[in-house]
Every structure is written in C-alpha cells, then in structure tokens.
C-alpha cells in the first residue's frame, strides 16, 4: 500500500481520553478502541477476537489491555494475546498520530465507500461495585435486639442501627 492509498482520520480530542483508559470510535462501520497509555495513544480493533468483548472497557496497564469478558490480555503494540500465546487470535493494529491535540488514525482509503465521518461509540463509565459487609457470628440481622456483654449487664438492650447491609467500595 503506497502513501496515496492511506488517509488520516481525526477521531477524538486527546483530553477526552484519560490516562490508562480507552474509548471506542466507529469509523466506516469498524469499531476501533483507542487507549491512552504511558507511551501515548494506541488504537486497535474494538472487539476482542476471542468472544467479541468491548476492549475499550477493558483494564489498561502499561501497554496491555485485559478484555472485560473473559480476561484475555493483549499487547497493544503487537496485538498478540499475552496470556494465551498458543492462540492465533490477535488484534488488528492502527497507526496513530496527534495533530493539534486531536488523535488521528491511519486507514486505507479503500475502506471509505463514501465520506464517512468518525463517530464516538457510547462510553459507559465502569459500574460502581458494592461489597457486602461480612456478618460476624455474634451479629444479628437488622432490627434484632442485641445485648452488649453478659446477661447480667445492667441497662436496656440496645437495638442495632438499621442498614441495608451494603457499603460502597471507594475506587
């Protein structure tokens, strides 16, 4: 493929992709995941070749991403699977460059039948995880009357404060 057959497509502002995160864009019907790594911006196909998981929602560490569906780990430079080296599954890589604070991806001119603009896929923030509080054997359910100390203690029994049993996990 020579230089005339290639074209650069502006896809996103650099400021729109926080460090160690990815975003999805759709260009000419292709889902592309763009990652902000410690080495800059890297672009790969947006779906995991194993089972089609959304790679832009995966966990980024250095220059690798972990698919959120089945934890397949891919090198963002080579596209190869790190934790399944025997697999022939590899990601398609796309060259990137930065022009005036905008991320551009290089494509073959032949993929554009018409003048198709880049569109950003819907990004969903990662869901808040909730952790169930461990109940000690001596603890009762909410609403149960719990006494402190031995049965010979003085004073009225104390009621345990009402709660739903869950506490949020700070990320």
The helix tally amounts to 0
| Rg calc | 25 Å
CATH fold-level topology of the domain at 3-120: Rieske Iron-sulfur Protein
- Could you give the count of β-strands? 15
Strand order, sheet with most strands = 8-4-3-2-11
| CATH class label of the domain at 3-120 | Mainly Beta
Calculate the terminal CA-CA distance, rounded to whole Å.
46 Å
What is the beta-strand fraction? 35-45%
| CATH homologous superfamily descriptor of the domain at 3-120 | Rieske [2Fe-2S] iron-sulphur domain
Mean pLDDT: 75
Helices and strands, in N-to-C order? EEEEEEEEEEEEEEE
Structural class per helix/strand content? mainly beta
User: Low-confidence spans: pLDDT under 50, at least 5 residues?
Assistant: 126-131
Q: What would the principal axes of the Cα set say about the shape?
A: globular
Task: Give the helix proportion (percent range).
Answer: under 10%
CATH architecture of the domain at 3-120: 3-layer Sandwich
The major beta sheet can be summarized as: 5 strands, antiparallel
